[in-house]
Each structure stands twice: as structure tokens, then as C-alpha cells.
Amino acid sequence: MSIPQSSPVTADDARAAADTFRSTYEVIRAEVCRAMVGQADVVEGVLTAILAGGHVLLEGVPGLGKTLLVATLGKAVELDFSRIQFTPDMMPADIQGTSILVETEGGGHELQFQEGPLISSLVLADEINRATPKTQSALLEAMQERQVTIGRRTIKLVEPFCVMATQNPVEQEGTYPLPEAQLDRFLMKLVVGYPQEEEYLEILNRTTGDAQATIRAVSSGAQILAMRATVRQVPVPEAVMTHAVQLVMGTQPKRKYSPAMVNEFVALGSSPRGAQALILCGKVRALLDGRFAVSRDDIRAAAPAVLRHRVLVNFHGMAEGISPDALIDAVLAHIPANA
Fold first, then answer.
1. What is the CATH number of the domain that holds 14?
2. Residue 300 falls inside a structural domain
């Protein structure tokens, strides 16, 4: 199945591109859901992130299937997958790689570089907030620059490259909260909640019996890159871009579009990366809806996942129990879709 690489010039071309994108997405989603039960919004968010070319932060208590979701996606898309279990004693060389001394056939020795798990296509960064700032900074370079630097050696990472990180929102002992600069590199932050009552039985049936789902490779890295190219081709009306800018400015205290709640409880609002992420996620949503144009509703639907980790609540807000999601809801209510 091929994805058009050139910009569609007719309505038929645009419709065909959207239909092909959606059908390929549905094949991948269906295969992932053979292992995952429920969590439809999280599955959609993870697929949106990889198709938009961004990274995703998964937050939830242990046992909700975060690791299973990412590992299953790696199998379904047939990407080079690696998992890094972060601990406080992990050093940058443990994830980037290092040169080791090996014996040659003639009895001599030479230095050979051994790649670390970060040099992969799909990287699961498990419990990322357990890594020290030094190790987090090594991951940051890979996320932003798509490269790894060890000494004077620079290794360009092969696309598609995506980091999917997990963190526990409750347990804080022995953790190092991610700095705002690194949080900003994540396209989305998805909150993984508890399953519904009716989903528990399906989870138990799938995981406590002798039958295990075998995940097939239904796509490839090349196809993901082609789908990313299609996402980039989707046009965005100027009015929709303006709306995305207004929403981002609405999270910034004392700005033209910020509501009173933001002015009172926000210490730091979204950067321009938030607007970029809104547009990219809006493009994916439009394609999944069979459209080759982004609407304001696409932007607004993406706002919570895109902006929640880019809004820093101040001490007053934390004392009042104000969450980033509540602040984003206030922004959406303050800036209506028809504004």
C-alpha cells in the first residue's frame, strides 16, 4: 500500500491520500488492539505521535499496559525496538553506547564502538523520571537533534525515530522530575487511566489463559515515513493557524488571550512548540476523519494532550489543587471555536 509523496493538486488526489492514510492507520490500530484492551484514546494518541513525527510521554500507575502498548506497536510496524529501564545509577554511556577494548585475531587489541539501546527506531524509555539529569540530557539530544554524540563521534539516528517514555505520577522517591526543556520536546503527554469494569474480564481472559496473541507486522518504517510525508502535505487555513496561536497564548499569563484562571495560577505557559504540535496533531486528526484540511475542532481536540505538560502551575495553583487540564479547559472556554 503506497502513500502519495507529491502534494495533491485536485480534490480527488486529496481524498485518495486521506483514504489511504486512514486505511493504513486502521490496520495498525487493529493489530495493536489485539494485545491492548480499552485505552482507545491512548492508542490513538500514541499512533498520532509516531505519524506526526514526535515523541510521547505516557503517565500512569504501574500495571496499566504502557510498556505492552509500545512493545506491541514496535512489532506491528516492524520497527527496530529497544527498551531502556531507567535507574538512578544509569549513565549516558549506558544508553548511548561506548567504545570497548576487544582482542583481534593476531593477539592485539583495538577499540570498537558498541551501540547502546538509544540507537534504535522505537525507544521505550521506561520510568524516565528515575534517570539523573545527566542521563536525561543525553536522551534530550537524541529527541531534539535526532543524533547521539559520544566524545567526538556523532551518530545520526535512522528515521523513523520515536521515543515513548513512561513515568509513574505517584511514586516520587528516587526520581528526578523532567525539566521543562525536556518536557517541551514531547509532542504529547497522554494520561493512562484505569480500565473500565467490563474491560477487566477481557484483560483477565487474554492474560491468564494459555492463548497469547501473536502480533503480526502489518506496516514498516518506510510506510510510516510515507505517512509522515502525507501529514506534512495537509494544508492549514490561516484562520486555523491563528486559532492555534491564540490557544497557546491563552496558556501564557498576562497575555491577550489568557483567562483569569491562567493569570492567577500559571507560572509558565506553552512555548511555540505547543503551536507546532497542535498543527501536526490536527493534521493527523483531519486525515483520520477523511479530510485533507485542518479545522479548528481538530486543533481543540488535540489541545489537552499537547498542552498539559507545557503548562507549569505556580505554588498558589498547586495549593489550590489546580491541574494543568483544568487550566486548558479554561483556555478552551475563554477562546471559543468561532472566535
1. 3.40.50.300
2. yes
CATH of the domain at 335: 1.10.8.80
Task: Kindly write down the DSSP assignment for every residue of 295-328, as one continuous string.
Answer: -HHHHHHHHHHHHTTS-EE-HHHHHTT--HHHHH
Helix (H, G, I), strand (E, B) or coil at 275: helix
Distances (CA, A) of 176 to 40, 133, 166, 217: 30, 7, 13, 36
* pLDDT value at residue 9: 55
Q: In the prediction, which pLDDT does 235 show?
A: 92
Residue 287, domain extent: 234-339
299 shares its domain with 180: no
For the chain, what is the domain count?
Answer: 2
- Residue 268 has, within 13 A of its CA and on its CB side, a CA count of 11
Strands 55-59 and 162-167: parallel
Over residues 181-190, mean pLDDT: 91
Residues 267 and 201 in one domain: no
Instruction: Provide mean pLDDT across the span 141-152.
Output: 86
* 56 lies in some domain: yes
Type of residue numbered 116? G
Maximum average pLDDT range among 65-69, 217-221, 290-294, 314-318 = 314-318
Output the average pLDDT for the chain.
Answer: 88
